[in-house]
Every structure is written in structure tokens, then in C-alpha cells.
Amino acid sequence: MRPPALWTAVLRRVLPRRDREVLLDELERLWWGKRAADGAAAARRWYRREALAFALRWPAEVMRRSTWKRGGEMLDIARQVRIAARSLGRSPGFTAVAVTTLAIGIGANAVIFGIVDRALLRPLPLPEPDRLVAVFDGWNTNVATLDLLEDRLTTVERIGGALDAQGRTYAPDGGATRRLTVASVTPGYLEALGVQPQLGRRFAADESTPGTTDVVLLGAGFWRESMGGDPEVLGRRLVLDGAAHTVVGVLPDGFDFPSARNDVWVPAEVDPADDGMYWGFGGYSSVARLRPGVAPLDLANDLRSHEEAVRLANTLWTPNEGVWDEVRITPLQEARAAWVRGPLTVLLAAVAVVLLVVCANVANLLLSHGLARRRDFAVRTALGAGRARLAADQLVESVLLAGIGTVVGLFLAAWGLAALRPHLPSALPGAGEVGLDLRVVGVTAGLAIFAALLAGALPALRSATQAPAARLRESGRGGGSTRSRRRLTRGLVAAQLAAAVVLVVSAGLLARSLFALGRVDPGFALDGRVTARLHLAPGLPGDSRSRALLFDEIEAGLAAAPELGGVALASTIPFGNEDEFIATFIPGVTDDPNALPVIRQHRVSAGYFEVAGIPVVRGRAFTAADRVGSPLVAIVDETFATTWFEGEDPIGRTVRYPWRGAPDMRIVGVVGATADGDLSTGASAAFWTPLAQMGMGAPDHVTVVATAGGTESAALGAIMRGVRELDERMAVSDLLPYEERLGASLAGTRLLALLLVLFAGTTLALGCVGVYGVAAFSVRERWREIGVRMAMGASADGIRRDVLREGLRLAVPGGLLGLLLALPATALLDGLLFGVRRFDWLTFTAVPLLLALAALSSVYLPARRATRVDPAVVLRGEG
User: Fold this and answer.
1) To the nearest 10°, the Cα dihedral for 330, 334, 336, 340?
2) Which of 106, 767, 768, 802 has its CB surrounded by the most CB atoms within 10 Å?
3) Collapsing DSSP states into helix, strand and coil, what is residue 791?
């Protein structure tokens, strides 16, 4: 007996001549196998289906072959896209999973690249940015140095400096007084940057001389928010600290020099007659524009050649020779982004790993999808479709999937950037401009094409290299995958799990570091403490006695509120928005005026240490008697005492400010050390002086620290009301619980850890999906075997253990490879970890256990399904 003659004749008509006899022989062999296994009727039905499939494919294959040119296999792209779209439409589940997976990887890369591009890669939005350098990178300098260098340097066109983020009161017409953040810039600063206002002009050189600094440039954001974007704003008056300033220009959108925190820019006063401000105040960051053809090293040599003249011109003290020997000149873009380069590199590496895992996951999906389409490929090959054509079809499908995934991913990226933007550090270069633009979209599209080619390459090669007879043989017996295909699939899953382990280890290390930072004792109390910054009303008497009395009045007025317990004032506080660092003489210890330590100083009211919860460990605290006219006193912290008075009693010793003629301040106490600005660096040395003694002059702003009598929100409200009752012209800003202020210092680390945990979780989830897919396919592939084993008495527990063991066999190689890769990969975290080593045993132990648990969870459903096989159904051939 032979196969049905009618359908054999149909096959002889439609099969291509070169493969006709081979395919007919193979079909007949398979027909005999079907007949022996399932009976004659089933064999006839199967043969008829195969013949009809070939017959229906034949016209389409003839048309497809007509599109190929003799000189090469040139594809009709539009036709290929339509075919790929129809193929994907017939498998909506596969398409949805593949598109979602690609969208996650592409969207994550778009988000991080958008941030990295603005901060590290994109040229500064200034003319010829490659000629801009940060002078004295890592140091700040004073107005006098910049003023002298402006006329002496031959390697630069302009040099200038900026004092960043200073607070001033702003009294709008008909509105409440509030604080503005102001940058003070020297005459050459804006010219060196080359920035041109979008309205008006820059500052003139003579507008930095005393009495002429009453002009102001508005930031674009402040102009729109507070001035309504009025194009006629030039010439309007802006009242800052009670003095009227004329608006002369509006800076362009996105201008964030020296940082994005500033609302307005004013000229710095350059007054050689004021030694204290001219030489003594060294808080200016400086930039220069190099002349064409000049290198940073040339500027460094130029600076050193003028060191002697600047050094000897200093009227406050004479620095030692060679003070500029280690001067650093750094490209401005590099200097601005130096602090964030490490964290962004970690995130960029993380999303690259996510994309590779996505590619491996989609490649696995395409392999499984191709296995389900074996008969389709076999028929097309038999009808004359070449191997290159089949591979091209697969790649077109991959590119189409990537195209759809890109669209979805960009929507996810837009949402992600909108959610992330408010949490980006304000000092991050370009933070306000982060978003999806043509550059980001273009790079994202390129990544999508790369992902499509990478994910589709292996499935395409497999479809192109398998012989048509082998495909028919597999489809005819309903068989599973080949050994090589299983090895490839398992390899891809192991690679996904290895990548997941690297990211989970990194995220675990950062999370443990963040936990360790949260346990650091800052040295002061946080519970129930609130803070606020007060900016005094303009026009008040500025002499020391009057200012001290005003501070007493403010403290007493606020302390009367029932919502507040203790109240204290300070010029600066640990983890506040401003610092006071000053070169400090310690007689008998640091007598060399050129080698003075620069130490943090806080000026505080008498009750500050009690209110802030800082213990006095030796001597006494300040009292109400420590005020103007009384002997000058100071208190040092334990770090100060152990650094400069190790083994000695600091009580009775003296310190003094660096300028000539500064009086001694006698140390009367030692308090506990406090962290400030960064918990990871520990407590730095600090000394404290009485606010009422006005040791550095009368401040025009103070910070309130108070204990809450009830809730913290009620206490903050009481501070606001109390200030308004005292003087409604005072501006209040930064009303925050102290714990929230401290938490803000961890915001960058917390954001980095959160993103890394998110990416690690994504890769682990994708890896588990891969494990589930392999286990589920294996169960389906072994369906008949499982049925036979159960019919012969195998227990459900035994079958379940077999499937669970398969999941572990997938996880173990990936986990081991991931741990090996994590050892060098965590080197990127150097400088970001605190209180935990890169090779932390707890993390490296917990991650494999987590991976094993995830793998077992992934194969639970396939294992459960395997135990529900009905042997009778399988043996009848119905399963």
C-alpha cells in the first residue's frame, strides 16, 4: 500500500523539480510511520494536510521568487514587512511578550542615556566650549587674584569667577518677601563663557566697581515664573536686600553656570580698598577662555609665572612660594561632571546589561517561535525559498518587533524621565534640560536596530542552515527540539541569569551601603527637630550690638510659641545649605600663615548645643554673657581637639582668624564631633563661636533650629507665623524637619541604589521568564515520556523533583558565571560604597540563594503541570 495517489499527484505538480523526489520519499516514509503508530485513517488525514499545505503555499512562493533578481537576492522590503506583520499578527501572545520585553530594555536605555548625554556627552551650550577651562580646579579663589590675573595672563582671552547660590531677600510688588538664590560674578565671568542674553546685555566692566553694582540679570526660569515672561522687562526694578536693581538682561534657557540653583545674577563688587572682601573671601570658582591654539598646560605655566606678583600683592598674608605648583587646569565640561561621572557610569553599564538580557530573552522567544513554525519553513524551503530568504524573513520580523518596541519604549522613557526629573540632583549638569529630543531618540533607534539584529541573528541562522528534510521529519513526528537547539536555549538562559546576578550583587552592595549610611550617628539629634532659614529685612542697623539684640528678639519671640520647645539660632548648621570655612591660626600649632588649616566654623546662640542635642564633653557651653564687648571665646569639637591638641587639654588654648591683627579667641569647651554634608566622610574638625559676639561681622541671615512641642508640621507653621509677626519683611526659606534635611544628603545615593535595584529586578525577572519557558517547553516535549513513566508507577513527587532539578541545572551555571563576573564588575562601585566591602560575603552568599529561590519559583508551574499528566490519555495519543 502506498500514500493516496490523488494527493501524491498534487505534490508532484507543486513541488520544485530539484527537491521533488527527495521530499516525496521523505513524506512517504513519514506516512508509513504515522500509519504504523496511529492507523491508516490518521495517516491519510496527515498526508492530505501536508499536500494541501504545499499546494496553498505554491502560488505565494512563485510570486516571492519572482521578486529576487538574478544578480543577487534583493528583497522587496515592503512585501517582506507586510509578510512579517501578518506572521506576528497570527501570534499575538508571542508578539506582545516580545514587544514588552524590548520596550523595557529600550525605554531604560533611553532614560539613562538622556541623563548621561546631558551631563557627560553633550558639548556645553556655549560658543567654542572646547576652549573653556576651570582654573584652580578643586580650589576656590578670591576676587583680588582674578582681578590681577585678568590683566597679566597672555594665554586666555578672559578669566572670571562666580560665587554660587547666595541668598538675598526679594520684595515683589504687592507680594510677600521671599528668598532668591543669587550668583555674584566678576566682570570677566560671563564674557569668558561667551554667553549672550536672550534679552538685553551682559554686565559692563565698570558695573563691578563700588556703588555701580545695582544691576541684575534674570534667569530664564525666574523671568517666566515671576515676571510672566514679559518681553518689556528690561529697565524694571528688582528689590534685593532692600536695594533696587535694574534689570539689564535675561539669560538664555538652560544657562546653569555656576549651577542651576540660581534665580538671578549680579555683579561681584571689586573693591581693592576692602581687604577683607578683596583678598579674604576665597569662595569664587573660576573659569577662563583659552586663546586659540593654547593648551591647558600652557595656562598652568602662565599662572605659575605670575605667582610671585600675586603672592606679594596680598595685603592680608603672604603665601609661601610654590603655592600654585599643583594648580590644575581642567576642561570645564569635565570639571562640572567629575562628581557624577562614577554614578552615571554605573547606571550606563547597568542598562547596557539590561539590554543584553533583553536581546537574549527575545532571541529565546524567536527560537521557540521558529520551532512552532517548522512546518511553515519546511514547506517554503521545499517550494524553493532560499536559506538567505528565510534568514531575511526572520530578521525583518526582529526589526519590526524592535520598531514597535521602540515606540512603546519611548513612551515609557518619556514617563520615566518625567517621574525622575524632580529627583535629580540640582547640581547635575543639564538636569533641567533632561528629556527626549532628536539626539536621544536617534540613539535609541540605533540601539533598537542593534537589539533587533542581535536578538534575531541566532534564530535567523538556525532557520537558514537546517535542511528541509530535517524540518519535515521533525514536524511529521511532532518531535521536539534538537540537542543543539536545547543547548543554545539553555546557554541564553544561563547568560541572562549571569547578567542578573551581576546586577543583583551590585544593587545589594549599594543597598547595604545605604543602610550603613542610615545608621551613622551624625552627632546631633534629629527627632522632633525642625529648621528654617531667616533672611533679615533690609535697612536694619548693621552694627554688631544692634544685630545681636535683634537676634535675641527673634529667638525670644519664636520661643514664646507653644508649638515650639527650645529655639536657637546659627549662622550655619551641619547639613545646612551654606558653609563657613576659614583658614585658622592655632597659636603654638599652626603658626605658619601659609600652611593654615581651613576649618569649618559655626556661629551659634547660647542655647544651640542643648537644642541641637550636641553634647558638651568638656568645659562649658556658651552663655548669654558671651556677647559683643565680652572676651572672645570659642568651642572646638572632639575631632578638632584630637587633631591639633592630641594628648593635651584644649581648654584655655586659643584660635584666631587669619588676617593681620585678628584677636585671639579662648577655647572654653569641647563638644561632640558632628558630621556635615556627607555622612560617608565622617566628622570633620569644626569650631564654634558665639553668634552674639559677631566675630566675623553681622550676618544678614540666620538658621533657626527648634524642638517641636507637638507635630513637626505645627512647629514649622509656628516659625512662619512668628517671623511674620516679628517683621513681615523677613523672608523665610528651607522650612524642613532636620531629619529631612539630613535625608536630602543621601538623595543621590538613594536614587542610584533605587535605579540599580530596579534594573537588577528587571533582569532577574527576565531570567526567570527564560527559566520558566525552558522548563515549560521541556515538560511539553517530554509529555509522552512522563505519561509512560507514570503508567509504569513513577510517583508525582518524583516527576516534580525532576522538573525542579532541571530549573536548578539552569540556574547553577548562570549563577556561578554571574558571581565570577561580579568580582571585576563591582570595581565600578569603588568610591560609592560605605561600610561594606566590594567582596561582601553576605551579599555574595545571599544572591545565589535568591537566584535558586527565583529559579525554583519559575519552574513550579511546569512541575505542577507535569504531575497532572493522564497516562491513559497520553498512551492513546490524545495528549
Assistant:
1) -130
2) 767
3) helix
DSSP SS3 for 743:
helix
Angle at 340 between CA 335 and CA 346, to 5 degrees: 135
Of the chain, the end-to-end C-alpha distance in Å amounts to 29
pLDDT in tens, 521-531: 999 999 999 99
Run of H or E residues at 800: helix 796-825
**Contact predicate 704/531, CB 8 Å:** yes
Contact at 8 Å (CB) between 527 and 739? yes
Strand, coil or helix: 837 = coil
Kindly report each contact of residues 868-871 with a partner whose C-beta sits within 8 Å and lies 24 or more positions away, as own/partner. 869/783, 869/786, 869/787, 869/790, 869/799, 870/787, 871/787, 871/788, 871/790, 871/791
Q: Supply the pLDDT for residue 399.
A: 82
Alpha carbon distance 700, 571 (integer Å): 9
With b meaning 16 or more CB within 10 Å and e meaning fewer, what string describes 779-807?
beebbeebbebbeeebeeeebbebbbebb
Cell of 696: 566675623
Q: What is the pTM of this model?
A: 0.75
- Three-state SS for 59-77 is HHHHHHHHCCECCECCCCH
> How far is the C-alpha of 68 from the C-alpha of 75, rounded, in Å?
6
pLDDT tens-digit profile of 118-177? Answer: 888 888 889 999 999 999 877 788 888 888 888 889 999 999 999 888 888 888 876 777
SS3 of 263, please?
coil
Q: What are phi and psi of 70, to 5 degrees?
A: -60, -40
